[in-house]
Amino acid sequence: MHTRHRLYGLLLLLAVAGLLALAGAGSLRAESAAAQVAGPSSVAALPPVVALPAALGAAQTQPPAAHPPTDAACRSCHGNSTAVVVFPSGEELPVAVDLAAFDASVHGVSSAAETGAPVGCNGCHPPATYQFPHPPVAEPDLRAYMLTRSENCVRCHEPHLTAHPGPEWSGGYDPAASESGISVVCTDCHGDHEVQPAEVWQQPAATTVCAACHADAGVDLTDPNQLALHVQFGLFGQRQVTTDFCMGCHGPPGQTLTFPNGDEISITIDGEALHASVHGIGNNWQQLECTDCHENYNYPHPPLEAASAREYTIEKTELCARCHQTQQEGHMDGVHAEALAEGNLDAATCVDCHGAHDTPVPDQPRSRIVETCRNCHSTVFDDYAVSVHGTALLTEENPDVPTCIECHGVHRINDPTTALFRNRSPELCASCHADREMMTHYDISIDVFETYVDDFHGTTVNIFQSNDPNTPTNKAVCYDCHGIHAIMAVDDPDAGIKENLLVTCQQCHPDATANFSDSWTGHHRPSLRDNPLMFLVTIFYAIVIPSTVAFLGFLVGTDVYRKMRGR
Amino acid sequence: MDELREITVERTAALHGEYPRFRLMARLEHMVLLISFTILCLTGLPQKFPFSPISTGLIDLLGGIETVRYIHRWAAVVLVLGSIYHLLTSSYRLFVRRERMRMLPDIKDAYDMRDTVTYNLGLTDDPPRMRKFNFGEKFEYWAVVWGTAVMIVTGFILWNPINATRLIPGNLIPVALEAHGWEAVLAAASIVIWHLYNVLVKHRNKSMFTGTLSHHIMEEEHALELERLERGGEAWPAVPPDVLRRRQRVYFAVASVVVVLSLALVVWLFTFESTAITTLPEATRDVFVPLATPAPFGREQAGVLSSRMRLRLSNEAPPHHIVLHLGSRR
């Protein structure tokens, strides 16, 4: 309905305009006749690649006017007219065109060499819509008019990617996502009628065009050093370099960077991933900009100092440390930093575990933790994956079983091969296995730690732990019997400790016989059911010791009483 | 020799109003027991109560748990040797000198204890008149005999668990550990409460070092023995020299065999099981085994991984293995 109404309105306007033209434009008749002659050849000169947008196609279905426009017709008015187009917004646009400059532009007379005929007026302003008399402008304001006109450029020119936001057809990124919200279109930089050849844009002087928008007093944009300063201190007044600005180059796929040693890495940043990362909208502080991490890293970029991609990665660890200081300090005390200090460039730094730009929440789901460590410690992962802990985590995302970090730490990852780690390891296991609430869910005894400490192995380790935790001990700790990463259920038929107790004992006691393994109380507290003899001995002494002490104390007491009475 | 020395002691004692109580052999035995028992307590009880800060402090002072255990075993050897020595001198006195076994308890000890208590409480006016070894001393003696036997047997099992389980069921080992620990507590408690009270607090009784006891203490604790000695009774019955010599010949023949066998036994015990535990050799394991995919960081940055691998190869970096201390040297 709306379309039809608008169509009728348009026809009515055209009819009125046509009557007015017949009545009052007799002086243009000669030129119109000339245009009638030149018109067909001008239309034929349009490049064959032109694919008119559907809207223009629809407009073409209107009945052709009696006098198709020609360049000559256009030039007759627009060369020196003082007329202006008034937009509904009140803005005015002079209709005059600097014909000399137009002729000198790439779309001027020289364009004939490439296209067979000059692009001319009709090349961009299709005769169908620019039939004379011109229809009134459809756009509400000057800017909207410019955006619509720029769309004509892509009829012949593939849009090129820029750091600027722009409409969807332009290849720029979404203006709605940019800070300014402004679309920058072709004509903003290239001009409308005085379009320059591509070579001109390679010259420093071309940056004066940038200054048209990015004006900042006292900066010479033709000097690259000054330009850098300008970028740094604000393109629009005091505005900082924004993520939008960076993404202009780093957004499109296929961007690579080659290091002096030949390493080639992708410098395309997955904007969606960055946006979704913990530094993006998920950030509970504020969404980070590129420059929050890449501080003072402006365009043009300073030359790379790192010789290789790995070196660069290691160097950039300090970027993370600026906010994540606690984690960094922990990391510096850990094995990875130690290995790095010893010259092992493979040692993990922040981004190896957390990712660089697509940093997810590191422990969601929990299995992400073990998968992260797996990247470098795959064989350890393989052991873990078949363990009671690993299977529970990987198959059901169990919230209680330890991942790597519960035992090894998160950033301050301790060396697990030290005597200290070994001596403290039973307490590590006990932190879960002596937790009544947690163990109740799994029907696991919480006596395991205390019975271990009461036993010879545990007593010894505990003494070591109290006195000198750094003294190495060969007394068994939890993982000597139960396994380090491949911890199996105790009743696992193949690798469970119950089924293989003697073999387990023989690891440290090679001469042990079948009887010997019976000396292990299986973490049971002595009772009439489990090790009744031990229970009875305990009961025996529990009676004998207090009664002996009481009896002897009584005898001593009576003697003291006698002495006090002076006998 | 013994006779001469004993007579000397006796006369000296009499001169100072002192009465003979312990012969040199017994005093030596006591010294050996005193030293070994003390050391065993100091090195053993902290192991029974490892959580006490006193224990950990003591262990630290003595040079760590391994040293403490080493000292404990050597003290145990001394205690075992002292026990053998006690059996030898006891049998000498029993078979050669044919002394009465005055340490055996009888019904009078029960009455003496009752009378001591009633006297102490003021229920009776006169203390019991007791013999050379009163009820308290007999209690102590047999407590030491019992305790030492338990400690030597259980201690041997704990020292040599692998070989012990060739003879006994394995579940006796934790039983032995339990008994060893609690028996030590019992022994130490008895000594502190009873023995130390009697010889240090009640009286400053130095007879185990001097061999003699004052008239005052004799009267209070050994009235019957005092009476016997004052009547001219011998402290220890003399044996005619020819009879003594004959018996000694048999005794020394048997005793030398027993001594040799006993010493061999002790050496055997001490070296029975030199490696109850074997320290596992250090195992090494490659812990840096990166997955081929995905790359260590950035899913799309496989190129980085390959360059890192190249870097590792080109720099000929040492393999990144880690030493796992599955066990350690003793």
For the record, the CATH architecture of the largest domain in chain B stands as Up-down Bundle
Q: Which percent bin holds the helix content of chain B? A: 55-70%
Mean pLDDT of chain B: 81
Note poorly predicted spans of chain A.
21-68, 232-240
- Principal-axes geometry of chain B comes out as globular
Number of strands of chain B: 4
Strand content of chain B: under 5%
Q: Largest interface, counted with CB-CB under 8 A?
A: A-B, 93 and 84 residues
Q: CATH class of the largest domain in chain B, please?
A: Mainly Alpha
Range of strand content of chain A? under 5%
The number of domains of chain B: 2
* Helix-strand makeup class of chain B: mainly alpha
**DSSP E strands of chain A, number:** 4
Q: How many angstroms does the end-to-end distance of chain B come to?
A: 48 Å
Coarse structural class of chain A: mainly alpha
Put simply, the count of helices of chain A is 31
Number of helices of chain B: 13
CATH topology (fold) name of the largest domain in chain B: Fumarate Reductase Cytochrome B subunit
The oligomeric state is heterodimer
Name of the CATH superfamily of the largest domain in chain B: Transmembrane di-heme cytochromes, Chain C
N-C termini distance of chain A: 130 Å
Give a description of the structure:
The complex is a heterodimer of chains A (567) and B (330). Helices cover 47% and strands 2% of the residues of chain A. By secondary structure, chain A is mainly α. Among the domains of chain A are: 367-517, no CATH class; 527-567. The longest helix of chain A has 33 residues, at 532-564. Helix content of chain B is 66%, strand content 4%. Chain B is built from 13 helices and four strands. Chain B has a two-stranded antiparallel ribbon. A two-stranded antiparallel ribbon of chain B has the order 3-4. In chain B, helix 4 packs antiparallel against helix 12 (241-270) and helix 6 packs antiparallel against helix 8. The model of chain B is unreliable at 293-330 (pLDDT under 50).
